[in-house]
Design goal:
The protein has about 400 residues and is of the alpha/beta class. The chain has 14 helices and twelve strands. The protein has two domains: about 5-255, 3-Layer(aba) Sandwich (Aspartate Aminotransferase, domain 2); about 260-395, Aspartate Aminotransferase, domain 1, CATH 3.90.1150. The termini are far apart.
């Protein structure tokens, strides 16, 4: 790979391995094991596998390695480990590096499964978890005390789309020797510059924008080569959270078109936010790329002015109005995924964040009227018309 390749070129050609047949599309190595020329060769590989040598698919695979190298190049990371799902990436990154007595400071606004990993699993095994308002730098500064082992947050929170200042939080964390782990799904690999801004570890659910077409679960952990190979890999290969070769091939194909899809989706999301802002049926519209967003200036600096592919709308009539709105849609579909080529809406209070206690929903701004919309690649005028007609029926 040339060091001066731009991201779109890296997303198509990075990490490519070709067999003796010279195939154009990457090969899928659907094998769980590998053959050695001799017993001595097997012994040598188990002692130390070379960069293009593999032992067992749970440890690594040529197709999976292509995906890991390609997305690491795209993100600007030294290395990556591909996982079976986004939550396998989140739990693997955290659990592999933490032990009883460690302190983790986290933003409070998190996806429900991330909260479960922190509050139920890690806390159960003696890890101290401290939650803060992710948008309050003073709260971060007060909580990140000497001895803090890790700092964790979603760069854009789900579903209220708060934006965390990666550079400032990373500076505070590094001052006490803490590792910064960022779940960067909503920012996408297209608009991300998290490592350059100070993140040590970047995590994606590749189920979202990388696949982008609702086909497969996947995740990836990226960071320094030492962290990935000495901390993450031993934990993941022994606990079984590795990505399958077929999934890696699907993700490689998704990377080829990801930038084209995501940029089109973000453009449509901004048009939609502009179209519905001030609508009588809505009490608020939340889109990081819109000038009305509370952290719009930070978005300009951190994501190049792009607000991502997701917006949220809060209907004045509460859950009843939100359900009327959702049920009236003709193009956009009701589901709980995001980052898909199809526009998808969900009602967080009764789906993705249903099990949160009401006081936590209130603190996070997850109201009965809130709906989250992941904008797809459909024609933006068609989407706007569909949303407007559904809002009219919700009033």
């Amino acid at each position: 790979m040339s060091d001066d390749w731009n991201p779109r070129t890296r997303a198509v050609h990075g990490g490519t391995r070709r067999s003796q047949y010279g195939e154009v599309s990457e090969a899928i190595f659907l094998t769980q094991g590998f053959v050695y020329d001799s017993a001595e060769a097997a012994e040598a590989r188990f002692l130390e596998a070379g960069p293009d040598e593999f032992i067992y698919a749970r440890y690594g695979n040529p197709t999976v390695r292509m995906f890991e190298e390609r997305i690491a190049m795209l993100e600007g990371a030294e290395d990556a480990f591909a996982t079976a799902s986004g939550m396998a990436a989140v739990s693997g990154a955290l659990t592999s590096m933490l032990r009883a007595g460690d302190r983790v400071v986290s933003a409070r606004a998190l996806f429900g499964s991330c909260l479960y990993v922190l509050e139920d699993i890690l806390a159960r095994y003696g890890v101290e978890i401290v939650f803060v308002d992710g948008t309050d730098l003073a709260a971060w500064e007060a909580a990140i005390t000497p001895g803090t082992r890790a700092v964790f947050f979603e760069s854009i929170s789900n579903p209220t789309l708060e934006v965390i200042d990666i550079k400032s939080v990373s500076t505070l964390a590094h001052a006490v020797g803490a590792t910064v782990l960022v779940d960067n799904v909503f920012a996408t690999p297209v608009f991300s510059d998290a490592i350059a801004q100070g993140a040590d570890v970047v995590i994606y659910s590749t189920t979202k924008h990388v696949d982008g077409q609702g086909r497969a679960l996947g995740g990836v952990i990226m960071g320094t080569r030492e962290f990935i190979r000495k901390t993450v890999e031993p934990y993941m290969k022994h606990t079984g959270g590795s990505m399958s070769p077929f999934t890696a091939w699907v993700m490689l194909k998704g990377l080829e078109t990801m930038e084209l899809r995501v940029r089109a989706q973000a453009d449509s999301a901004l048009k939609l936010a502009n179209a519905v802002s001030g609508h009588a049926a809505l009490s608020r519209v939340i889109y990081p790329g819109h000038p009305g967003h509370a952290q719009h200036a930070l978005v300009q600096a951190q994501m190049g002015g792009k607000g991502g592919t997701v917006l949220s709308m809060d209907l004045r009539g509460g859950q009843a109005a939100a359900f009327r709105f959702l049920n009236a849609l003709k193009i956009a579909i009701i589901s709980n995924n995001l980052g898909d080529a199809k526009s998808i809406l969900t009602h967080p209070a009764t789906t993705t964040h249903q099990r949160l206690p009401q006081d936590q929903k209130d603190a996070l701004g997850i109201t009965p009227g809130l709906v989250r919309m992941s904008v797809g690649i459909e024609d933006s005028d068609d989407l706007i018309a569909d949303v407007l007609q559904a809002l009219a029926k919700a009033e």
